[in-house]
């Protein structure tokens, strides 16, 4: 039996169930990002499974049952426990990395939706039809309207507050903990066995705290609605790695640049001797491209306003060399009237993929309009060094359709997956194709001037 003030308790249950359901949905999307990104395709799976689980939950919850309170208590405890444990960084790292030999991250994401997202949402979806039996009204339509109103208002606030406040100021692990605790609180409100529910809540919430909050504190410098950041340090800081969403964004070895950033540094600022130029960097990472580079003016663009402080405090140990603007890379290009001599696109969303909206021909054409004559467009992607996969070939074709004259190099020829850099010239397209019938190659070469 529900406690005193039944109407308020029913309203509270419906509201919080709606809130937590959407909070979990936002967390599913956020936690998938480091492994599969958050493309429309990925989000459609999460939302699709979420909705079908709700539909089936509505159907099953509408079946006659003798003890509504016991069913709700069981549903809330199971949903809180499964959601709390299996949304954690710790589990997801083990899940995606441990099963990578079985299937790609994309198919593991689909499996996760089926075995985790579905059952949690299914249990919470039963709340609305079960609580409908507890409300009184003049008609079925009035009762249904009140139930859906309360749950939907909770869902609206769950979506908005989770992404814009809780994730932003408390981070991922506390957001998971709060969401699960709210469900335990509902079980406590409903149950007459207060001591038993309190013991269960304390034990599982304590485990969730250790599994989520303690793990995050020990392994991440920050988590927010945009990314999860780590800095790996080795003895005496001889090797430091700045990681964003699981991707090695920047590496310092004995205080010096390493990997593809070192290659770009040598090509652009030593061999090409670029000086006194306006350089735009889309995707800040660890702000390494401008480190120790003088006589150039750098502007960094990144969607996360927190990344500059994190890089300076935990990775660089100094102020960045350049200006920082917290804005989406596409939004900035669309809105700025400023032209640049060099534009470097080095943005990543997950361990390997760049944000979808920064990989289109429309976006790259827009970047071209913001380049000065004889300027350069530089892109870093992770792809197959042998160009045998669809993604690497498509990225290549997309870039070269807009910038047909590019140097292409791989950071490593030892591994199949590697950083690939495109260094493209914004020059007039005056070339032609030589054929056996019309071949002026020698003549054109001899006419070439220094």
Enumerate the spans where pLDDT stays under 50 for 5 or more consecutive residues: none
Proportion of β residues? 15-25%
Radius of gyration: 27 Å
Query: Separation of termini?
Result: 90 Å
> How many discrete structural domains?
2
Question: What would CATH call the class of the largest domain?
Answer: Mainly Alpha
Q: Could you tell me the mean pLDDT?
A: 91
The SSE string, one letter per element, is HHHHHHHHHEEEEEHEEHEHEHEHEEH
Shape: elongated
Strands of the widest sheet, in order across it, are: 8-7-6-9-10-12-11
Structural class: alpha/beta
Question: Can you offer a commentary on this structure?
Answer:
- By secondary structure, the protein is of the alpha/beta class.
- It is 54% helix and 16% strand.
- The strands form two sheets. A seven-stranded mixed beta sheet has the order 8-7-6-9-10-12-11. It has a five-stranded antiparallel beta sheet with strand order 1-2-3-4-5, sandwiched between helices.
- Helix 1 crosses helix 7 (140-170).
- The longest helix is centred in the first third of the chain and has 31 residues, at 6-36.
- The termini are far apart.
- The mean pLDDT is 91.
